[in-house]
């Protein structure tokens, strides 16, 4: 009878023996998806078998003037790099790893495909004792680099532990890389040619503007003006706040790394309309402020014959900025007693900041332009644009 009771126990021990042998012997690689620990579900408990991934989000040369990710050839002998973990999940914890494992970075520098002396895999993690960052971050910088082609390699690694208590760290298998070339400086007397890559439209409906530009060679900086006023800018963009109504001219002359200045600056001309709050209003209008309207303001009425008007000397083109909506009424735009255009503001859906051309002329006009309602239906006017250009 005792022998019969031992048989189930021996059978159970036979099933457990392979697992215990695995624990006592050399375990398979923890980060290997084929590992015992990485099976789903893991037979010995839930295991983290996903290695974090590094990204190089900033690569600068020449004290930050040149972006090596855009222009990977430079005469600068110094370079600095910033990296972080890659995550698509905003709910990840502070280090970008879903399993709450500390993430660190190691970096290596190669020159012409050979590891640079003293620059083999080394720690390049930024300390973050207060967990202030949204994800793990790292930094590394190099100085006095000789000419040649360089590759920075970065690997991320977390501090996960296996269910068996072994070394379960997950390290990125294939490093993240960025390659750039340091070249010998030459005597450069040729100025760059600057072009606008993103600029304000002809009629600009914002109190600020972001002008982006580039050169036919890398730009160290640029010289920017709005009208006759010098504006701060760098080698790729100028952000200008506080625009008022009127015609504006933006110019930018790129400066290359040899100090040559573009003698023929790129030019962008645009016009900001007059907001409704600055127009002369007859009785019957209600003025309001709300985000989403032109300059965050509007004038609305249901009174037939109500008018908004303004005069600008030298006017050669006019536009209306208004809201279109189901049930909206119609308006006419006049110059003096002459009707220039009648406009229906009815639409299938409500849309703010709608730009509507009124007219343009070869000769300048200096009289008063008016927007007059044609019915008792609701009308919302946001602005009226005047330009000395057609």
TrEMBL record:
Residues 1-31 form the signal peptide. The keyword Signal applies. Keywords: Signal. It comes from the Bacteria. This is Ig-like domain repeat protein.
